[in-house]
Amino acid sequence: MSSLKFDNVYIKNSFSIAGPLEKNGQIKKFDLTMDDYYYREKTFEQAEIKMQRIVIDNLLLQNKLLDGDIDYLIGGELYNQIAISSYSAKYYQIPFLGLYSACATFVESVSVGANLINSKQANNIIAVTSSHNLNSEKQFRFPVEYGAPKPHTATFTATGCVGALLTNEKSKIRVDSATIGIPIDMGMKDANNMGAVMAPAAAETLARHLLDLKRSSDYYDLILTGDLGEIGTKIFREYIKRSYDLKLKKHIDAGSELYLDNQETYAGASGPVALPLVLFNRILKTNKYKKILIIGTGSLHTVSLINQKNTIPAIAHAVSLEVI
Amino acid sequence: MNKDEYKKLVKSLTPKENKVKNTLLAFLSGGIVGVLGELEIYILMNFCGVSRTEAFIWLCISLIFIGCFLTSLGFFDNLVTKFKAGLIIPTTGFAHSISSSALDYKKDGLITGLGANFFKLAGSVILYGILSAFLLLMIRMVIECLV
């Protein structure tokens, strides 16, 4: 069985930093915001490292914890060899686990962290993830200042950083269960249409999660997918109806919840930070939903493998949360 | 659902790019660049006493300068995204690709960053430009020999 059930894992606190475009989008309030992409550093890479450090520092400070009180720091992002997370982790005396699942990294971190706490191997864990639009552009696409025309199906990597403190002390948000995804390759080759690449993975993980835990889709007040974007969302809803005969009571895609229509972000936001930014700063603040299933979706491609005409595998991990 | 059925589903739900609008925009913006270029040649030839060949060289230099300058100011990429091929096909596109790569990699060092990545995007244009010029020249030589 690929689903894990947890009894005593809670998300005590979270801290978010939003980028310059994100702070003027649909969500108005974040813990911190950036005025520009440099964040008073010399390079974009340094800016992203600084974002992660500020998030970890603030999580420690707000909860009156020291490095030694945290058992594990778990995180990852989109940069080569997840270097940003490693370079920010070196400032702490905390055992560090670097993970990569592209844009599903945050959900993967929470799953791994929750499992460590549930098995009583740890008491406090920080899960952190970030993405920086211009670092991703350089990594996956063209130089930052190069104006490559993009199709409507392309998504816009969100800039921001989110960290969450997982603990075994009872608090408002309980981590109920997790489902680890299977990589799915439906023969898509277009990295400018990642919604289409990831939609089947999200559907498969959702179906398996419901099957494993013997729940119907009505069980959840909200199913929040990561970054399918507007076109990916349409494909996901149609695909899940046709292939799994599932009807979703309430589905929101975080990629469609971050930017305004006039911000020229094509099909919406992507990046590992899109899902936690929307989850912690919008969904959980409304107090509308009690049972939430978050599904992080990641497109597991690299530029070389796409240039070599390979199809793109995608992955989706799910975590269910209960607001107490 | 198998892969082919999925491809069909994706195709049916993906909005089509407006090719007519894109072509028209590119035609108009590229055309404007051309008209401005002709205007510069006209001014140079009639008011500065420059020959047409020399005026053409000045035109290339100024287009390249404008492309690089606007790229470094940070808004040429937005123009290219809007007008697409209209600004990529003229020399401005070539200049834009070089200056954007240079800007991006200058922090990675002069040799390992800027130097190594300077022609990252423009390399293909140079290589296949020279190659096709060579082939065309060969064809021309063969024809000239025959005629």
Describe the structure.
The complex is a heterodimer of chains A (324) and B (147). Chain A has 324 residues and is α/β, with parallel strands linked by helices. Chain A has 2 domains: 3-167, Peroxisomal Thiolase, Chain A, domain 1, CATH 3.40.47.40; 173-323, Peroxisomal Thiolase, Chain A, domain 1 (3-Layer(aba) Sandwich). Chain A is built from 8 helices and 14 strands. In chain A, the strands form 2 sheets. In chain A, strands 1, 2, 3, 4, 5, 6, 8, 9, 10, 11, 13 and 14 form a 12-stranded mixed sheet that branches. A two-stranded parallel sheet of chain A has the order 7-12. The longest helix of chain A has 19 residues, at 44-62. Chain A is globular and about 50 Å long. Chain A starts with a strand and ends with a strand. Chain B is built from 8 helices and no strands. Chain B has a domain at 18-119. The longest helix of chain B has 29 residues, at 19-47. In chain B, helix 2 (19-47) packs across helix 3, helix 3 packs parallel to helix 6 and helix 6 (91-105) packs antiparallel against helix 7 (110-117). Chain B is 82% helix and 0% strand. The model of chain B has no long low-confidence stretch (mean pLDDT 91). By secondary structure, chain B is mostly helical. At the A-B interface, helix 6 of A face helix 1, helix 4 and helix 6 of B.
